[in-house]
Structure formats: C-alpha cells, structure tokens
User: What shape does this take?
Amino acid sequence: MLDKLLSMTIDLISHEKMTATQLASKLEISVRTVYRYLDVLSSAGIPVFCRRGNTGGIMIGKEFRLPAMFLTRDELDVTIAALNSPAIKDMNTAESARDKLITMKDRRPAASTQYYNENFVVEDNDAESNAVLTDKINAVIEARRGREILRISYHDYHGKTTTRDIDPYYLVYHDGSWYVNAYCHLRRQMRLFKIARITHMNPTGGLFVPMVKAKTYTFDLKPREGKINIVLKISPDGRYDAEDWLGVENVKLSDDGVNYVASGTVPDDKNTYAKILKFGKDAIVLSPDSLKRTVTKMCEEFLLANK
Assistant: This one.
C-alpha cells in the first residue's frame, strides 16, 4: 500500500490533474481504492483537491512540495551513485547536486518515520451548494496560508453568539458539514467550529505561529451523485438543527412570524432524506415535489414494515 500511495502522490504532483480512472489504471487498483487512498493522503496533510465536472479531476495544491526528508537513505544512495555516472555531461551541476544529497543523507536518521508538511485539505463537492459558505471556506484557506488570526462571530447550537479570535489549522469535512479546526483564543484550546454557524469572519491583522502538530481528520473525497434545491418549512423547535445543516444565512423567519423557511442545495441521496426525516413534525417539504414524494414514500414504507 505504501508504494501505491507514494506513486499516487508523485503522479499527482507531476500532472496538473488526473481522474480516478486514470490513477486506477496506472496503479492497477480499483476506483474505489483510489478514493480510499485519497482519504489516507488527505489525513496525512497533503492538500488534495477533488472537483467534479468535465474540467474537473483530482489535483494536489501547487504549494505542496515533497520535503527533503521524503527520500530514504537507500534511495539517496541510489541517486548519489547515479550522479557519479560518466554519462552525465554537466559534471559541475552533478557534483553540486551530489554534495547536497550527501549532506541530506548524513543528516537523515538511519530509521525515522516519513512525514508530510502540515497543510489543509479541501473537497469542494458540497461547497458549491452555498455561495456564502464557499466564501467562508476560501477565507479560511487564505488565512491558513498566511497564518492570519481570524475574528469570527459564532452562533452555537443553543443560540448564543460569541466573538472569537481563532488560528485556523485545518478544514474538516464530516457528515455533510464543513468545520474549521482552530485554536480558540477565548477558550485557549483547539476547537472545531462549524462553518455554517459562522456569520462574520475577518482577519485581525495579527499572525500566529503554529503549535505542535494538531489533530488531523479523515475526509470523504468520493464525489456524490447529484444535487437538488430544497425549501423546507421549519418549526421553532427545528430551527437550530436546520441552521446546523444548511447554514444560519439560509434559515429565515417566515411571513407568519413564528415558523422558519430553510433553503439550500444538498446532495440528492439517502443521507439528505434521512436528515429531513429526523426533523419529524418540525419540518415540511415545500419543494421540490419529487423530494416530498420520496420522503412520503419512505414514511409509508416504514409504517408498513413496522405494523
């Protein structure tokens, strides 16, 4: 598996983009295994991008470079030996490169674990579902690149709003939602902040120095099937769950002054249907009709099965 992972990393660095099918063919593995390996690479801190569409593909961020310690001592020996070949025409350049590699080898421990540079990972299949959410994600990415401290306005699950300064470390995609893993200056510890619950985000002008390696996460990079635009009528009891799912900006007080209207673009799959059903009596599907029919049928089948 390690050889395949290294080959995949080098292939992605060497090409502007590749498809899962191309990688599967070259590495002689299945497409499903390609996505599983991408999860491994992303959890190791390699900035893997997976974009859908005709112009999409799998890419590694241009800012990523293999660290010098990536080569093992044996690989350095082979490379150094190759640079001694009399077939090389530019011996001055070869000698310079050889000396640098010898220095790297001398400084490399005989037995040490390989590592990758700290970075962020973005899987943007669901970022397109909400332009505001996309802007927030991009702001986190830019702050992470520049090591900028962000000041955010955060709405927690209980409806309390706080202003916090955070040092962004990672973007985390989990169970259909985006989070930023960051050091919170208010709580003085690493925290996960759901991006849909951040209403304002601006750089403070200050910079942060990354601490010891923070916790990493495994990401689901597998593209989803399709998307639908939904509109739900939400009761006051279901408001905060709707905000968690679709974002604070997309849950508005309805004309009746009591209930809420929630909207957004979501995957057209069983996970979405299950989330709607979890609302129970606190949600009514207003559109599309196809979604209402699907959810109704699922409820009828459930009742029939549990008679």
Observations:
- The chain has nine helices and twelve strands.
- The longest helix spans residues 91-107.
- Residues 109-129, 216-224 have pLDDT under 50 and may be disordered.
